[in-house]
Design brief:
Helix content is 27%, strand content 28%. Strands 1, 2, 3, 5, 6, 7, 10 and 11 form an eight-stranded mixed sheet that branches. Strands 4-13-12-8-9 form a five-stranded mixed sheet, with no helix packed on it. Strand 12 and strand 13 form a beta hairpin. The termini are far apart.
Length: 264
């Protein structure tokens, strides 16, 4: 069995990722630098990275699930979901322009966001619990940007790197979940006015609700709840789409409206 990383090693790797985040300079994959890197150690690196951001004044406003769809898992060559944290500095107003300064290889993915009115403390969380705890839903873009060179990531790389999170854009419409079949909700994504992807809620573990169930129970086993007032990004329903300066992205879900963002 591979030994756990020492506290000093966890700090050292978190330092590398934090520097990559702040300088916009990619690093080599941790999974190649650390033989047999364990998922538990990758999450410990991620928590240390988050604490550095909190120490700099950022505030946690939610959590995100990554790699929930088979299309994204194939693209990233991972075999299970992961999770990361959202901070207030990652939030971008709907329709605003997001500067790509400091980003390395950004990609946009269309998702459904859950806005919680009650805590969800796993394990043991069910589909019903998620619906009851959700005040409303909205459509959103998540902008991901791996600090690992050329997106050459395994599951431990993206976990350590806060699930490759960079920014998120929420649509303005808020819709209660009651009566919505999230598995059949259709999504279309346009880039510079052209349709580039379409998908449905079933692409994310059968339903975005199943993704939040997974997250609540996974985090619950680690002693971390999903909290009232938080925004939970439930995972991409379409493949990740590379973006560059000058691009305009729009995502639409019939019942939830739209979200858009310009890149500069």
């Amino acid at each position: 069995m591979t030994a756990s990383l020492s506290a000093a090693e966890i700090v050292a790797h978190a330092t590398d990722l934090h520097r990559a985040l702040r300088d916009g300079q990619a690093i080599e994959p941790l999974s190649e630098r650390i033989a047999g890197l364990r998922l538990e150690d990758a999450y410990a690196i991620s928590r240390n990275l988050l604490q550095r951001r909190l120490d700099e004044g950022e505030r946690v406003v939610g959590k995100k699930i990554g790699a929930t769809s088979s299309a994204v898992q194939r693209m990233l060559k991972v075999d299970q979901p992961d999770f990361g944290f959202l901070t207030d500095r990652m939030a971008v107003r709907n329709g605003a322009t997001l500067s790509l300064d400091g980003m390395i290889a950004p990609r946009a993915e269309g998702e459904i966001a859950f806005h919680l009115k009650h805590d969800l403390c796993g394990p043991g969380i069910t589909h019903h619990d998620v619906v009851a705890a959700t005040e409303s839903l909205s459509v959103c873009f998540e902008i991901v940007d791996s600090r690992i060179r050329d997106w050459k990531i395994g599951i431990t790389d993206t976990v350590a790197d806060n699930a490759s999170a960079a920014a998120f854009v929420l649509g303005d419409r808020r819709v209660p979940p009651k009566g919505l079949d999230l598995g059949t909700l259709g999504m279309v994504v346009e880039k510079n006015g052209e349709l580039v992807a379409s998908g449905a809620g079933a692409a994310a573990l059968g339903s975005p609700i199943n993704c939040v169930v997974w997250l609540a129970n996974t985090l619950g086993r680690l002693g971390t709840p999903l909290k009232a007032g938080e925004t939970i990004l439930s995972g991409a329903l379409v493949p990740l789409i590379p973006v560059q300066r000058g691009d305009h992205m729009c995502v639409r879900v019939g019942a939830l409206g739209s979200a858009e963002v310009h890149f500069a």
